[in-house]
Amino acid sequence: xxxxxxxxxxxxxxxxxxxxxxxxxxxxxxxxxxxxxxxxxxxxxxxxxxxxxxxxxxxxxxxxxxxxxxxxxxxxxxxxxxxxxxxxxxxxxxxxxxxxxxxxxxxxxxxxxxxxxxxxxxxxxxxxxxxxxxxxxxxxxxxxxxxxxxxxxxxxxxxxxxxxxxxxxxxxxxxxxxxxxxxxxxxxxxxxxxxxxxxxxxxxxxxxxxxxxxxxxxxxxxxxxxxxxxxxxxxxxxxxxxxxxxxxxxxxxxxxxxxxxxxxxxxxxxxxxxxxxxxxxxxxxxxxxxxxxxxxxxxxxxxxxxxxxxxxxxxxxxxxxxxxxxxxxxxxxxxxxxxxxxxxxxxxxxxxxxxxxxxxxxxxxxxxxxxxxxxxxxxxxxxxxxxxxxxxxxxxxxxxxxxxx
Length: 405
Known about the structure:
The structure is a single chain. The protein has helices spanning about 1-50, 115-150, 155-190, 235-240, 295-300, 395-405, and strands at about 55, 60, 60-80, 80-85, 90-95, 105, 110-115, 190-195, 200-205, 210, 215-225, 225-235, 245-250, 255-265, 275-280, 305-325, 330, 335-340, 345-360, 360-370, 375, 390. Strand 18 and strand 19 (about 345-360) form a beta hairpin. The chain has 6 helices and 22 strands. Helices cover about 35% and strands about 35% of the residues. It has 3 domains: about 55-65 and about 315-405, conserved putative lor/sdh protein from methanococcus maripaludis s2 fold; about 70-80 and about 225-315, Elongation Factor Tu (Ef-tu), domain 3, CATH 2.40.30.170; about 85-220, Helix Hairpins (Orthogonal Bundle), CATH 1.10.287. It has about 400 residues and is an alpha+beta fold. It comes from Undibacterium umbellatum. This is Efflux RND transporter periplasmic adaptor subunit. Keywords: Coiled coil, Signal. Pfam families: RND-MFP_C (PF25967).
């Protein structure tokens, strides 16, 4: 009886505790259910308060024909360089008529030598010729009389032979004297050095008053003012280039000349494994005037010996392109930022190819990583990170705003 009485209060205590726990759980569940709409509203308000990281413009990749170019470097050189030397020996330079940078024409006088000694030698040779001709006249008269008396027996055969031989000797002396006169006349012509071809004087060794020897160099000249660009290309690139290929060569100062491939070298350097392609350069002569050709030549942007970059135009092909400013280079890789529907951007990795400039600006070929219908960030891409929220402004409006500002 005592055991039954002691268990009854314990059971009542357990039941009460269970009832209280159940009530607490019900109240907690009711409270959580009531707070769900409030939490959702708070999250929406927080999202609405996120500020864009940057105001950007967008663009889409476009497909079209892109010029295929092969870029190379090389030296600018003279097409042909002429050495102008002296053919007169032991003569003094009396006057110089050309200097470095002058544009000269074929036959134009460049150097005058002192000719007094040559004139004296020429006069002596002419006198010797006159004497030889007089002797020939006498010998010819004697030979004519000898022939008339040869059959009469008045002269011996020996005498006849002497007179006839004297005539032949006199003729030979006249020819020798004529050759001497020709030689002195040639020396006289050599006292005037003229340009062998039209071109530009690039060097002058001649000095006023100096006595030069036979064959001494006086001037150097670029024949016809023609320059060529010697491009250095690999063996595989040489196989793609043919004579007549158009080339655009850019000088270090930014000036550009057009040209055409004249010849491709038949050999490759064994040390560098590079071959040469010879390109004839065509300057822009619109500024050249007949009145001042020297000034026009001096203003040319290309000089022999300078190093220049050029592009061979190999044709065109279809390509997907985006503006240069939309490409971001990080850690050695190229990226672009694609715009999503929620105005967040996603960083995508690109494989780029050719680069070209046109009226719309600088374009980059996208080989892989982007579709033509993808919207990407154009301006401001370099300041973004993956997942940033942006504010999009139309490119046309931005341009108008820039013009107004």
